Sequence to fold (239 residues):
Amino acid sequence: MQDSFDITTLIFIVLAIFVAWRLRSVLGQKTGHEQQPFDPLSRREPPLRSDVPPGERDNVVRLPSQNGDKPAAAVLPADRWKGIAEPGTPIAAGLDAIARMEPTFDARVFLEGAKGAYEMIVTAFAQGDRKILKDLLSRDVYDGFERALVERERRGEKVETTFVSIDKADIVSAEVHGNTGQIVVHVLSKLITATRDSAGRVVDGSPEAVVDVTDVWTFARALGSRDPNWQLVATEAGQ
Fold:
């Protein structure tokens, strides 16, 4: 029984050595085409192309080729801000910088939101609606609006404002400071506005006349934050 066990064991050992030798002869040779072990924490990006100037590499999107071997490079269209900013201008460069930090940024959507915020802020200030103003203004700008409201209320005055239209709204500047995006918007609007004293007499403006108003407002937002809202951080009268 012991001799039979020893012979069987010896046969298995010989077979195991033979199989291991065959496997090594097939799998154990390096050909120079082996892939590196997969590292789940490594960045799976192709190297930068040496023929692309450093200043243009941020505008290159690497796409997989049809055969799946090597990635191909595709330059983003130069007119991606068409209707908002001309290619090669500081405004376009600023919008590019914002989009690099927040890829979902859309200048057209921002501009529509800025026009909506403009109307809401002008109307809320006329009505003395502090709640809306707090949501849309930075602390410094809100404090300035608050002082004007307190002084107006002290005099017993009321403002009547009818928003007629926004004739034009253009982005005139776009920049990134640290992780904060800043966009300056030049707004041309039409309003009917009049201020009445405590007796109801008009002391400023007209309840019938439509006036042209020009404003330059600066909006800012912490890029990449969960809060999608841009706040008004500076105002000035335009020309």
User: Anything to note?
Assistant: Residues 94 and 175 are 5 Å apart (CA to CA).
